[in-house]
């Protein structure tokens, strides 16, 4: 659903107003259709009318007019009907610089240059996306002088540049966002993505849901028609009630052939947020067996004739042959214990995971930029690149799994032991409160006070509700 760009002329930038220029599509990204601009609104719009328009229902498919700042009192000596400020709407095309866009919009080069340089104090213009709408302001009472510009890079953020009489000044206004929880529930009839979309689950949330369950569920094979899911996720709203972006999944449940698997997000004392089952056990599984894509095993764990030393020696890791520069991933969540050159290992990284488990990575061509001892890494994060530093005959990753400081066979059962944690004590008590709250959120939804239900064909009922945390 692409809502058309919405423009209001209710508040002039020179008066300190902030104007909302874009609405959101369902995924939370700004959807702009610069080719479908409504005709420029008349410059004598009554502020009260604009304010009324701002209160119109948000789900209408008409361009919304939203004035986001308190309207200043109308100036007495300059009636709005002869508003000297002209607002010209331009949009950034692919590959355009802001300078070009402003000049194409009629701004003299030196003014455009000054405005862009003022803007850089609050906004990185290189981050401006194609399709971004910009309102350019000219003052007819001063010989069509360019007096500023304004745009909204995100629903919760407005950026403006205004001429203050002597120079251009930029400012950024972040609106306070309110977090609400969205509960969605669905029954899979043909595909999970179809059911999720019908239940109002945006793709990034579904993607996170699939990733969370990937330790446990094979989404290609395990799903059956009739299986159900529930997802409780955060959504952030602007003060106008506009959805700005989605946040984390708080709770999810997947019922496969009648068997329910529920996961809950919890941040343990001194740790990062993670997902746990109802028993308070981390859902993360053993470290990855292959911390690299598309590599072949060139040497396993065990006794072998050493390729460089030329005599039989215990090989305490597993070698993956891969071209120089192939990314190497952290095999599990953990903390960097060592990152740098280390004897015959060359460029070496060692990570500490839970349960006395560690992994080590040798012969890297280089270590990922900024990776240092003490840093926390997530499973799958790039920690370095394949090389042949140290004692190596050719480019490969030498991968070790250690338990209690001893190398073990990465393919052994011992190495598959869960690297996650189990909550206990105070953490467990707090976690149980959260479990009860999340379950209550879904019970409320079933009771139907705030529920929006949609029937989508026989046996295909999905529900979605918005509830304040
Ligand atoms: Zn090796």
Automatic annotation (TrEMBL):
It comes from Nitrospirillum iridis. One of its GO terms (biological process) is proteolysis. CDD domains: M23_peptidase. Residues 50-65 have a biased composition (Low complexity). Residues 1-24 form the signal peptide. SUPFAM superfamilies: Duplicated hybrid motif. The lineage of its organism: Bacteria, Pseudomonadati, Pseudomonadota, Alphaproteobacteria, Rhodospirillales. It comes from the Bacteria. Residues 313-410 form the M23ase beta-sheet core domain. GO terms for cellular component: cell envelope. This is Murein DD-endopeptidase MepM/ murein hydrolase activator NlpD. Residues 34-65 are annotated as: Disordered. PANTHER family: CELL DIVISION PROTEIN YTFB, PEPTIDASE-RELATED.
